[in-house]
Amino acid sequence: MTREERLLFCKQCENQKMDLKQGIICSLTGAPAAFEGTCDDFVDSPEKAALHQSHASPEVDGSDTVILSPEELEKYRSEQNLGLGIAAALGTGLVGAILWATLTVATGYQIGYMALAIGFGVGFMNRQAGKGIDPIFGISGAIIALVSVFLGNIFSIIAIASDELQSTFFETLSIIDFSLLFQVMMDDFSPIDILFYGIAAYEGYKFSFRTFEKA
């Protein structure tokens, strides 16, 4: 058995304890579990299993979790900066929306994949600046990603209109009828747009969390 397979049992066992150097160890032996198949000393403890679940943070590759001790959890929480994370995410989202509009005018196509890039960028910058591990970082990242993609769509429509009218972006913005703007968005809306919005929100959420290397 691998250590990961044994840990699935240990995390639910009453006899486990946390060692800052070795990770989860057996309180009876003072060493990491070494059993094969089943452990004769296993005592089920739903409370400890729930505790470990609440202390789980995202792994770098997104396929596993790293267990943090209460001390580590408190340390990383003290390093969080929600305001800075949101500011960085908002700035990235705005830049992404403007870039999307610029590419739309340059290519003549509204490239939907830009929504995915915006979602990733928002989440990544939220994580880098905010160093968050609490759910609020993911929630804010998802919301900012959605708003940024929405703005990207609006900016693209205005940019196309300004190109056709041979006027500047801000001149077009000052005279445009927003009721018509939203009507154009609805007319152009397709099921694939829902997918892009959904993936962007997921990326904004997932990539907003601080990641940790496995010991």
TrEMBL record:
Alphabetical keyword list: Membrane, Transmembrane, Transmembrane helix
Which spans are transmembrane here? 82-101, 107-124, 136-160, 180-202
Q: What is this protein called?
A: Uncharacterized protein
